[in-house]
Each structure stands twice: as structure tokens, then as C-alpha cells.
Design goal:
Two copies of one chain form a homodimer. Chain A is 58% helix and 0% strand. With 268 residues, the first copy, chain A, is mainly α.
């Protein structure tokens, strides 16, 4: 997807293709995480004494350092990336990219990363890790895998902004009416496609098996997938899909802030 | 693999299992890299003006920053990790792990990362990237994927030290004789197993197809793998396997530096 070309980004077919490709990344990242223990020490607030760093976990420390580096290589200039620690980001060392306007002005303010971190740590880690408990020498590796997972899931969920923007552009009058009426239920219905959602879950089961089982062992007795495919489907069903919808709804509810006042007034 | 337990690490079956698992990581990482252009700007020395940073590429800058963070989370304390910029590493923020002695004293000095970076940039990138050329807005993403690939390949190749150590332990007299005679050919023959090498290449073709093709599209017409499986097999055949052997040979040639002098003398 080329974010310098609005016509390629604000196109539902291209967005869907990008979302399907992101599933592969998320499945790969969960498989990598599954090599390690659940490692509660990584997530416990103030578990380690780190100078100048309080009320946060070791994962937070590692994620924050990583975001500092990534901000310097322009990660958070891209409209599809949302930092977990927006206050920590640094100016890029590369010349800036002049992205065209793709999303509404306030779009950076729609950020559900805290909710993502919470469900990831509480719900996903215990289900994808190979064993419950700590393994001291792997805490760094665990945090590195977690950062990959979190960034991939965050990108997937915040991509909802593009979905919302396209739907808004394609049916402005209807949305202006719903937004003016603060009709959350109506907005939710308009962005929900149960058939597509069902297909996502089916595809994730197939990908979980396809990528999680060593294909050279496929015909051996009882090959085990590194991460249970049902866990991946459930992650989407219970968290990724609902949070994507929340992003879409939050984005749409504010959409009139960045709309022509005359047009808004004209819709009754 | 538990590096705090020498008996689990210095065991050829366990090492082989770890090497097979690393293939998955390398294939995943190459597939992720294949989303982007070849991006020569990332690798060109002094392409970008970065304060206090000369005669290096943008990739070097990003890799060095990442290694600083990773060193602080203890990555380079682990005996299976080798930094690309050993001079840049920082003290860990976590308490140190007291790893038992697994490898010879000088093992950190065996480091082929410069050779790895060279073949990766020159030979692998043009073959796995989706298109030749630069795409300005993705230079950061490219460097992030490259770092993952480089670290995974580096770990795989330097794992040769464990293979060499086990082989040495299992047949000390023979190796002491070969090393004293500086018989590089004899050492190389003793560590080469053509049958195992052939199986690795076969397995990589299967993994390249298994992980590179979206399994939900497997029965559609002419599904394309994201990275050509033959490219992955060739990467192993031409670079990873020979460089692993170089690491093993370099490690073994110095092995008597860390051996009982009486024993060395007694072997004739």
C-alpha cells in the first residue's frame, strides 16, 4: 500500500488485501512468541529497578526505547502507525515524507494502544506461550517478541481509520445524519459485515495450521501447531475485530470536526 | 534450549532441533522483508547526513541503535548472540545472568557479522525484495525487517560454535591432532555431513512453499510464494552453511588456547 497515493489507500479492496496480509505477520509473530514462557516478570509494574523509570513494567521500558529508535526512522510519521508512548517519540533523522492528507485532522488522537497492551498481556500471552512461569535468561527475548506482536496488532486495529474514512467518503449524507444524531448503534451496524468477519476467522484457522506446523513434518503422526489455531481465531473474534470497530466508531463520531460546516448544516 | 544447563546445550540432537526451528524464523523474516522494495538508499554509505555518524549506511545507524537497546536487555550476554557493533553495546539494565561456561574463552572473538551483512545486502536483498528500487516512505520499515533477518541469520551461523564445541568434546584426541597439524582440510572434513546438508536444503524448499503461500489460497490457480523457495535454499547453500563451517573451523583452530597444556602435549 502506497500512502503517498490517496487513491490506492482509500480503496476498500486494497485495504482488505492489506488486512489479509497483516494476518500473516500477526500469526508469524505469535508463533515466534510461543517459543518462550509466559514470563510474568516482564509485565509486572516496578519488578526491576530501572533508574529514572517508575510505575511501569520491563516491557514498557523496552517498548519505549524501541519507539524512540523507530520514531527516529520515521515510523510514526506514517499514517498507519500509532505509538504506545506518544510523549516519548523523537524527531526523525531522515528527511520528512510529505504524506498527502488521508485521514481527518484528529486521527492521531484515536489511539487504543493501552487497551491493546492490556488484552495482549492478560489474555494472549498466557495462551500462546509454551509454558507458564519465568525463565530468567529469556526476559529480553520475550520483550522483543512482545513488541513485534503489539506493533503488528496495533497497526491492524488502527487500520480501521482507513476503513472508516472510505465508508464515510462513500456515503457522506448517511454518516453525517448518524453522527449528528450520535447514533452509535446505527454507525456500528453500518460498518459491520458479519460475512466478512466469519471469513476472517475461517482463514485464521487455516493460517494458524499452515504456518504453525513445520510442513516437512506434516505427514508425521499428530503434528502440533506451535500456536493453537483456535487461539488465534479467538484473539481476532474477542479483541482485534471489536477494537477495530471501536476505532472506526470513535473516528466516525468525530468526523464532522473536519468537515465543511455548510455541508454538515445542509444534512437534516 | 536452556543455556543455563550445559548438558542440554552441548548435545547434538538438541542443537539440530534448535537449528531446524531457526529455519522457520529466517523464512518468516525473509517473507516479511519481501513486502518492500530493494531500497538501495538504505545500504549506501553516507546517503543521509546523520550527525556524529560517518562512513556508515542508514541500516548501520538503525542496527547500531537497536543493538544499544538490545544490549541493555541482556541480548549480548547470551552465548548464542553476537553483536554487529560490539563497541557500541551498553551495560544491561537487568541483573546479570550467570551463564555456566559453555564455549571456549575466546568465543566472542569469533564473529563473522561483517561477512553476513555484506552477503545479505548484496546477494539476498535483491532476490527477496518485491521490486528493485527505492520507495522513500518505507526506508524505516525496510531497515526494521533487515535487522530481524540479519539477527536471525547471525544467530544461526554463530550457533556453529556449539556444534564445534560438542564435536571437539566428543573426539578430543583426534581434534587436538588436527589442530596441532593446522590441518584445515581435515577439520573441515570432520565437521561436514553432506547428507544432513542435503536434507536442510530439501526442508527449506518445503518451508518456503509452506510459509510463503497463503494457505487459504492454496487451491486457487497458480498461487505464488512470497519468496521463491529456491532463493531460500540457495541462501543456505551458498552462504549460511559455508559461513557456519567457517565459524566452526575458526573456533576449532583456536581451541587449544583454552585446553589443558599437559593434555595437548600428550597427544602426538
Amino acid at each position: 500500500m502506497d500512502f503517498t497515493k490517496p487513491e490506492t489507500v482509500l480503496n476498500l479492496d486494497n485495504i482488505r488485501q492489506a488486512l489479509v496480509r497483516m494476518e500473516d505477520t500477526i500469526v508469524f509473530d505469535l508463533i515466534e512468541r510461543s517459543q518462550f514462557y509466559s514470563s510474568p516478570s516482564v509485565y509486572e509494574i516496578n519488578k526491576f529497578q530501572i533508574e529514572g523509570f517508575q510505575d511501569l513494567s520491563f516491557l514498557d521500558w523496552a517498548l519505549l526505547q524501541m519507539e524512540k529508535v523507530h520514531s527516529q526512522i520515521r515510523r510514526y510519521e506514517a499514517p498507519d502507525e500509532s505509538p504506545f508512548f506518544p510523549k516519548a517519540i523523537l524527531p526523525p533523522i531522515l528527511p520528512p515524507i510529505n504524506y498527502p492528507k488521508l485521514l481527518a485532522n484528529y486521527s492521531d488522537e484515536i489511539n487504543v494502544n493501552n487497551e491493546i497492551k492490556k488484552f495482549y498481556v492478560e489474555e494472549i500471552v498466557p495462551q500462546v506461550s509454551c509454558k507458564i512461569g519465568d525463565q530468567q535468561e529469556n526476559l529480553g527475548s520475550v520483550s522483543t517478541c512482545d513488541i513485534e506482536c503489539l506493533q503488528a496488532i496495533s497497526r491492524r486495529i488502527h487500520f480501521g481509520k482507513f476503513v472508516a474514512e472510505v465508508k464515510y467518503q462513500n456515503d457522506k449524507e448517511n454518516y453525517i445524519r448518524l453522527i449528528k444524531a450520535r447514533d452509535v448503534k446505527g454507525i456500528e451496524d453500518s460498518i459491520t459485515n458479519s460475512v466478512v468477519e466469519g471469513k476472517i476467522l475461517e482463514r485464521l484457522i487455516i493460517k494458524g495450521e499452515g504456518y504453525g506446523i513445520d510442513p516437512s513434518l506434516r505427514y508425521s503422526q499428530n503434528p502440533q501447531s506451535k500456536v493453537k489455531p483456535e487461539v488465534i481465531a479467538k484473539l481476532y473474534k474477542d479483541w482485534i475485530i471489536p477494537l477495530t470497530k471501536k476505532v472506526e466508531i470513535d473516528y466516525l463520531l468525530r468526523r464532522l470536526e473536519d468537515e465543511d460546516a455548510e455541508l454538515v448544516k445542509s444534512v437534516v
